Design the sequence.
């Protein structure tokens, strides 16, 4: 059963309206996977340790001519009508032998929306091409042996810095996605060829059909170094995609949609049926991608405009057409991993102090409040919902950038990006959901956040959402307030006589204007609120080492109760920091162990009886 609680965001002091966002927290004993309904079969899976295309040291060889690829395409039996028209209906040259002007095709985002509407009007088709048994049997390690050949990268003749690489089918990636290269408005299917890949020690058939398809793609460009191709963005698995800014390493992922994450029924995973990439040219700055999403409950059309840089951004347009009402439809979902953080003091055998892709959920509410919610690895499934109207931003952030706090030379957790989502237009009423799932393995994604509309989207009707996702390394670029540097919680102290449980919470703030107040620390106080229980005491100390302040708050509850705690630093006139919030469930009283029944003399427990 879900216990529902409310966290207050101090509307009276911060000048917000009574509709200020509130947090509803729920926990249950069920444990569900954030990314898969069951954890992957192979325990060695670490998505961040996939061999990124940019890290391979092989020289870039000459790419085969695009004419060769198009010729192979023309001979394939599965050619689409637009591709046949392009290859067969070429107009004659002009009298002066100048090349003719290219004819513009009809591909557009509106065409993808039309396909999505047609899909939604029909029952979901769950059939998928049957993969060869050898590809199904690939293990994680053998699948990693299959690599796209860098010298076969597409678009090398386009004059742009972008290169297109493709992922092979096999292992968990058993559903092909139809890949298209869009040239002058013509969507040209990309045919499969074994010559595009190196197979290493992987045991695969000697021949595979040209209609096999691909699992996804990655695009590289000169994001970090003008002399080196680094991976910029990749689409692989269901509707997952992830991208990098300058100096980042892969960590969390984004998704097109999320359905029933943490719900009572198994999670549904929408997937890309088709992807179209507009071929860039020498003048192209942005990369444009289109996707057709499908699942039993919904279909949708997506457009992604990728702008690489220090903070790579992806502008998303999503047209969603449900087949039926969906109670838990996640818009702009993010998926991450949190195994252990600074506040975890339980006995661990891992030498690394912290292991996580993200350490907090950041919110910028429709009323302008900034909220920081530290992420946890809970003992039971936890769902926290932050009610809002027209949110200004939310995202999963890796705020701690110190290598010494992770000590991982392989995973580089200190270099993982945060993803910050900025909605465009009015999204109406709804909530930002944070789902935290227990895990004992860093290989499994256990954190999800998304926007959930208050009312289900109308079936059969297109609903459009627009937003921008950008990579960030620090939240100091988001607002000028002081921010949470770290937070801790002491162990519970039980007062049996009073029937209460007390716990101390410690939050360190820095940045903003806090350093200015170190010369007169008495001007800084802490504002607190709890949804249940009481605040037994507060302390604010100057923290010169952090160039900020430390807030200490003692909270009391009755055994078995839960509460949500929020706090921020202030002066008499205004708030100095963002709001820190968390939830706490006090341990339930443990029943006394049963006492052994006393046996009468001569009974079974009498030593004299056992000798007879």
Sequence:
């Amino acid at each position: 059963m879900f216990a529902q609680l409310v966290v207050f965001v101090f509307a009276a002091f911060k000048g917000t309206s009574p509709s200020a966002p509130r947090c509803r927290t729920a926990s249950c004993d069920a444990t569900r996977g954030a990314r898969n309904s069951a954890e992957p079969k192979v325990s060695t899976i670490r998505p961040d340790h996939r061999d990124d295309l940019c890290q391979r040291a092989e020289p870039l060889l000459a790419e085969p001519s695009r004419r060769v690829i198009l010729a192979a395409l023309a001979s394939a039996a599965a050619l689409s009508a637009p591709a046949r028209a392009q290859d067969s209906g070429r107009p004659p040259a002009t009298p002066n032998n100048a090349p003719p002007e290219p004819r513009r095709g009809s591909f557009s985002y509106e065409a993808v929306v039309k396909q999505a509407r047609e899909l939604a009007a029909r029952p979901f088709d769950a059939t998928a091409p049957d993969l060869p048994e050898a590809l199904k049997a690939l293990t994680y390690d053998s699948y990693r042996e299959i690599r796209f050949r860098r010298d076969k990268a597409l678009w090398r003749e386009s004059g742009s810095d972008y290169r297109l690489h493709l992922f092979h089918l096999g292992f968990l990636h058993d559903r092909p996605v139809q890949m298209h290269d869009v040239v002058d408005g013509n969507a040209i299917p990309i045919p499969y060829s074994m010559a595009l890949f190196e197979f290493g020690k992987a045991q695969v058939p000697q021949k595979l059909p040209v209609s096999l398809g691909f699992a996804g793609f990655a695009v590289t460009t000169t994001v970090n170094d003008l002399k080196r191709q680094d991976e910029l963005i990749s689409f692989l698995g269901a509707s997952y995609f992830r991208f990098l800014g300058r100096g980042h390493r892969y960590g969390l992922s984004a998704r097109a949609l999320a359905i029933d994450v943490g719900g009572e029924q198994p999670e549904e995973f929408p997937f890309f049926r088709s992807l179209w990439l507009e071929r860039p040219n020498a003048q192209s700055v942005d990369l444009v991608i289109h996707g057709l999403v499908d699942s039993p409950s919904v279909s949708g059309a997506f457009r992604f405009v990728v702008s690489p840089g220090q903070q790579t951004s992806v502008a998303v347009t999503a047209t969603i057409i449900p087949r039926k009402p969906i109670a838990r439809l996640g818009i702009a979902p993010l998926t991450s991993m949190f195994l252990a953080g600074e506040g975890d003091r339980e006995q661990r055998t891992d030498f690394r102090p912290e292991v996580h892709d993200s350490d907090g959920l950041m919110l910028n509410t429709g009323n302008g409040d900034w909220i920081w919610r530290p992420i946890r690895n809970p003992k039971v499934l936890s769902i926290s919902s932050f009610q809002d109207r027209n949110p200004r931003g939310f995202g999963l952030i890796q705020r701690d950038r110190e290598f010494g706090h992770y000590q991982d030379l392989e995973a580089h957790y200190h270099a993982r990006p945060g993803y910050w989502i900025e909605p465009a237009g009015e999204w109406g009423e709804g909530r930002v959901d944070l789902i935290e799932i227990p895990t004992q393995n860093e290989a499994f994604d256990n954190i999800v956040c998304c926007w959930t509309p208050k009312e289900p989207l109308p079936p059969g009707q297109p609903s459009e959402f627009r937003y921008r996702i950008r990579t960030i390394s620090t939240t100091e670029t988001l607002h000028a307030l002081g921010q949470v540097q770290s937070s801790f919680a002491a162990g519970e102290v039980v007062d049996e006589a009073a029937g209460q449980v007390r716990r101390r919470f410690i939050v360190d703030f820095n940045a903003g204007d806090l350093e200015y107040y170190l010369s007169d620390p008495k001007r800084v106080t802490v504002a607190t609120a709890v949804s249940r229980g009481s605040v037994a005491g507060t302390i604010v100390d100057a923290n010169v080492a952090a160039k900020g302040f430390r807030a200490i708050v003692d909270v009391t509850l009755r055994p078995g109760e839960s509460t949500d705690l929020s706090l921020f630093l202030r002066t008499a006139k205004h708030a100095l920091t963002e709001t820190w919030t968390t939830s706490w469930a006090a341990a339930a009283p443990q029943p006394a162990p049963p006492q052994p029944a006393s046996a009468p003399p001569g009974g079974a427990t009498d030593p004299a009886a056992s000798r007879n």
User: Anything to note?
Assistant: The domain at 480-585 is CATH 2.60.40.10 (Immunoglobulin-like). Confidence is low (pLDDT under 50) at residues 1-13, 15-102, 603-612. The chain is about 10% helix and 35% strand.
